[in-house]
Amino acid sequence: MSLPASQQRVLDRIEEALKKREPRLASMFAMFTRLNINERLPRIEALEVMQWWHPRRYRVRMPARAMLFLSLAIALIVSAVFIGTTQSSACDAPGSKTMGAGHGP
């Protein structure tokens, strides 16, 4: 990886300060590098570039969307039942004018 000169100088200063304060740190990093030189990145660490329209991109959000859809559907059904019962009870009330033609005095 190539960095601008100013950023490389800052990293070099940080490296020198760490070497002075923690001399064992350099040897621990060297050992880690030797042990893992032929290892691939773990699957969880490797990032994949996905197009915005790809269906796998929204896999994590699907349960939240499903819960939202389910709650909206339940609210719609409860509202329809409530409206249906209030309208039918209003029609059955005494003095309502729901009688068809030919029924009445």
Structural commentary:
This protein has 105 residues and is an all-alpha fold. The chain has 2 domains: 7-47, no CATH class; 52-90. Helices cover 57% and strands 0% of the residues. It has 3 helices and no strands. The radius of gyration is 35 Å and the shape is rod-shaped. The termini are far apart. The relative contact order is 0.04. The mean pLDDT is 77.
Query: Helix content range of the residues, please?
Result: 55-70%
Largest sheet: none
Strand content: under 5%
How many helical elements? 3
Structural class: mainly alpha
The general outline is: rod-shaped
Count of the separate structural domains: 2
Along the chain, the helix and strand elements come as HHH
Low-confidence stretches: none
Alpha-carbon Rg, integer:
35 Å
Distance between the termini: 97 Å
Mean of all residue-level pLDDT scores:
77
Number of E-state strands: 0
